[in-house]
Inverse folding.
C-alpha cells in the first residue's frame, strides 16, 4: 500500500491534494497544526483511507511518528502570506525554511527517500523572460516569502544529492479555487460584502498574473510525479494566459451582482500592490505539456469559478 504524509494537508491546496491522492489509491496521513488549515476540509474522509494528526512539523517527535510507514512525503506546510514578510521577518524563516529543514533531517534519520515540495513562481523575482521557463536565471526573489521558498529548494536539492533522496519541486502560479482563504479573489469578495459600493484595489490595477484552478493544480502534481526521472525534478505549474487585477475586480463584481467604484491605492515601486509584489508573472509550462499535461481552465475561468465558490 502506498502511504503518503501530507504536511499542511488541512489547508487549501493540501486538502484538495489529499482528495486526489485518496481517489488514486493512497492511504493518506495528514499533519497540520490548524493555524490556517481547517479540519472540516478533510473530515469527509474515513479511517480506512485517512488519518489526521494535529501537530506541527517543527515538533520532531510528532513528525517522526507521522512519517512511520510512509513511502512519500508531500511537504506543503508553510506560511503562504507573501505580504507578511515585510512586517515579520522571522515567520517565513521559521515556518518555511526551518520547517523544511526539519522535514528533510527527519527523513534522513528515518531513511525516507521521496519528497514532493510546493514552491512558487516568486522564486523567479521580476523575471525578464515571460513566460518564464524552469531553467531561467539568475533567480532573484524580491520578497522574503520567495527567498524562503528558494532556500527550501536549495536544501532539498542538497539533501537529495548528499543522501540519495529523490524530489519533485513544483513552482506554482497563483492557485485559486474552493477552500481558498486568501488571495486577490477572496479579498475582493470580502471587501464587497462589507461595502458593495466601493472597492479598494492595491496597486495600479495593471498587475498581470497567471491564475491556476485548484483541480488543474493537483492533477498536474500527480502527473508530474508519475513522469519524474531525475533525483531533483523541477516543474512549473500554471495556466496558459494571464489577466490583470482590474479584470479580476470586474469578474468578482459581476458574480456578486454589484457595480462598485474602484479606488486604486496607486501602489509602490511602479504600481505594485505591496513591497515584494511581483507585478507581472506568467510561467512557461512547456515541460509538463510536452509530457502530456494541459490545464483545463484559463486564468479568467479559474477566477470566475473561484468567485462563485467563495460566494
Amino acid at each position: 500500500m502506498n502511504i503518503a504524509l501530507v504536511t499542511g494537508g488541512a489547508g487549501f491546496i493540501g486538502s484538495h491534494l489529499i482528495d486526489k491522492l485518496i481517489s488514486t489509491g493512497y492511504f493518506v496521513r495528514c499533519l497540520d497544526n490548524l493555524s490556517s488549515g481547517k479540519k472540516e476540509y478533510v473530515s469527509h474522509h474515513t479511517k480506512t483511507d485517512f488519518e489526521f494528526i494535529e501537530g506541527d512539523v517543527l515538533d520532531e517527535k510528532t513528525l517522526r511518528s507521522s512519517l512511520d510507514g510512509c513511502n512519500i512525503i508531500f511537504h506543503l506546510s508553510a506560511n503562504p502570506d507573501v505580504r507578511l514578510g515585510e512586517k515579520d521577518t522571522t515567520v517565513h524563516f521559521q515556518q518555511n525554511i526551518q520547517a523544511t529543514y526539519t522535514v528533510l533531517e527527519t527523513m534522513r534519520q528515518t531513511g525516507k527517500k521521496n519528497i514532493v515540495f510546493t514552491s512558487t513562481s516568486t522564486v523567479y523575482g521580476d523575471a525578464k523572460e515571460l513566460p518564464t521557463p524552469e531553467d531561467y536565471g539568475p533567480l532573484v526573489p524580491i520578497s522574503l516569502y520567495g527567498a524562503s521558498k528558494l532556500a527550501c529548494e536549495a536544501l532539498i536539492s542538497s539533501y537529495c544529492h548528499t543522501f540519495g533522496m529523490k524530489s519533485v519541486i513544483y513552482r506554482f502560479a497563483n492557485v485559486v479555487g474552493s477552500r481558498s482563504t486568501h488571495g486577490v479573489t477572496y479579498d475582493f469578495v470580502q471587501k464587497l460584502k462589507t461595502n458593495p459600493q466601493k472597492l479598494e484595489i492595491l496597486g495600479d490595477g495593471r498587475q498581470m498574473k497567471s491564475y491556476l484552478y485548484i483541480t488543474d493544480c493537483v492533477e498536474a502534481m500527480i502527473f508530474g510525479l508519475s513522469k519524474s526521472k531525475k533525483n531533483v525534478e523541477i516543474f512549473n505549474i500554471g495556466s496558459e494566459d494571464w489577466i490583470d487585477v482590474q479584470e479580476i475586480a470586474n469578474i468578482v463584481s459581476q458574480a456578486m451582482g454589484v457595480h462598485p467604484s474602484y479606488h486604486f491605492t496607486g501602489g509602490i515601486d511602479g504600481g505594485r500592490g505591496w513591497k515584494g509584489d511581483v507585478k507581472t508573472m506568467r510561467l512557461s509550462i512547456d515541460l509538463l505539456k510536452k509530457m502530456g499535461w494541459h490545464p483545463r481552465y484559463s486564468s479568467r475561468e479559474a477566477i470566475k469559478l473561484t468567485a462563485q465558490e467563495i460566494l
Observations:
- The longest helix spans residues 91-110.
- Residues 12 and 290 are 28 Å apart (CA to CA).
- Residues 176-210+241-281+291-310 form a domain with the UDP-galactose 4-epimerase; domain 1 fold (CATH 3.90.25.10).
